[in-house]
């Protein structure tokens, strides 16, 4: 089964991983949420600064912005919190906060994107905010898959 993950473009590899993790988590994702996770993973796969952010401060700074800058910053905060909560929960422990802290900030950031966006984009982020915990569970399941060489 693992050999199947080694074939294809990065997007195809991430999609297979997300699908397998969703099955393991017992929370199959619809196309919109699956695609969102794949694109988040693609966007941040080489971000060396991902774990160095102070997410609460980033969220507060995003709230001070207006227009597209605000929605883009809130989306980034939500995406980074999603990855930290799902893939790097040990960071929460080191910072002496709960994974729920990242879930709350990320969900709030996505809700902020939904509130500030046009209809279709707003509907997507409303759905993502409502199912944030499921997305985290999918990423957590991905972390537990036996795939040591795929993520490097």
Task: Please tell me about this protein's structure.
The protein is mostly helical. The chain has one domain (2-144). Helices cover 74% and strands 0% of the residues. The protein is built from nine helices and no strands. The protein has helices at residues 2-5, 10-25, 31-44, 55-63, 67-87, 89-94, 99-116, 119-130, 132-144. 35% of the residues are buried.
Give a nutshell description of this structure.
By secondary structure, the chain is an all-alpha fold.
What's the SSE blueprint?
Elements: H1 2-5, H2 10-25, H3 31-44, H4 55-63, H5 67-87, H6 89-94, H7 99-116, H8 119-130, H9 132-144
Helix pairs in contact: 2-3, 2-9, 4-5, 4-7, 5-7, 5-9, 7-8
The dominant shape is globular
Q: What's the average pLDDT?
A: 88
- Describe the main β-sheet briefly: none
- Count of strand segments: 0
C-alpha Rg (nearest Å): 15 Å
Helix content: over 70%
Order of helices and strands: HHHHHHHHH
Number of helices: 9
The figure for the number of domains is: 1
| Unreliable parts | 1-5, 148-152
- Class based on secondary structure composition and strand pairing: mainly alpha
Strand content: under 5%
